[in-house]
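MOLECULE: protein
FOLLOWS: sequence and fold
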Amino acid sequence: MNNGKDINHHNLCDSELFVECNCLSEVQVTTDYIFNIDATKDNNPNIAVTTANKSCLVYSLDNNQLANIWESKKDKSKLIGCKYSSREKEVLYIGNSDGVIKTIDLRTPDKVAVQFKDTTAEVNKEKTFNCFDVSSNDRLLAAGTDVLGGDAFVLFWDIRINKLLGGYWQSHTDDITQVRFHPDDMNKLISGSTDGLINLYDLSQESEDDALIDTLNTESSVNELQWFTKNNKDCISCVTHTSDLQLWDLDKGEPYQSFSREYLTKMMVRHKL
């Protein structure tokens, strides 16, 4: 596995690693940790964050100024994520570890529009959710769970009819920490877990065995996954639970670059990020 010192070997300059950014507005939304963040894709976006005190806050950005427009009631369990609908700016998905993913219409925020749950779970055997994602066309929702009874699950719902479609439970041996749909193809999904594996699926296949296209071994514990493109090819970035960064070429099935936490910290200080 490479480390941050390999940077010169791959001839990557700082401009290829870091994008210069200017801070336009800054607001302290909470004294607690912020765990998740998402924003709508428009010129004056709404920004949602989940915090360590089990709340979700929504801010509007207008003329480079942030203003609070909504705050959820404190949840009973840890919030695992927030995600805006790609088609409806006012619709926000919020998930918690108790196995519930809610949709909130911010025009009527006091009313939960839809709830997605594991309807197959027996009493006192509910699965703990760690993560979720929504496909780019707002048709599929996927959630990853802790291990239960020896299995870790990726569960799928049809958003249009609020129906649990099924799940995968043979591809990971430890808690699933990330699920990410491809930004353009709803049939492509990656999942990552504390067993160090990243799985790539083709959801158009009928069985889990056929859907599992590839398994990548990070030799660490997966914390965060993202899709990106390099030379018009699909790639994956992985941040581990030790805050190291790996960049994976899916065609080659191996990381083409890896950076240690120490190296990234040094570069962030240099660039004042």
